[in-house]
Amino acid sequence: xxxxxxxxxxxxxxxxxxxxxxxxxxxxxxxxxxxxxxxxxxxxxxxxxxxxxxxxxxxxxxxxxxxxxxxxxxxxxxxxxxxxxxxxxxxxxxxxxxxxxxxxxxxxxxxxxxxxxxxxxxxxxxxxxxxxxxxxxxxxxxxxxxxxxxxxxxxxxxxxxxxxxxxxx
Length: 169
What we know:
about 170 residues, mainly alpha
């Protein structure tokens, strides 16, 4: 695109430079030819400068038509791109909505995870309390069962049961 623009600018500048010289020649030979139409050299130079001027004007018109055609094509391409951009904007808005929902879901799931961790930690502490309690109870019971007084009382209880059915500990 820029290359075509650069070429068109170079053509325009070339035509601009030539046009000024051709126009000056045409003015000069126009005056000479109208003052002295019988002089062949003036007549030949006038028609030659007129022909050059007409060719230059034709070249300007051709270049102008080419530039208009390129502008029209560029306009069509820009319209297509504009439509695509609008479609992409709509898609972007939809995707941003989905991302917002995902962030909201992420926040909710993060809260659920935090709640689960808290419940797990509470249950973990309770489990350790139960284990320590069982250990203490087992230790106390074990100590009680191993103590001599307890054994002596148990034996006395068993003896009394054997001898009397209403004995208590």
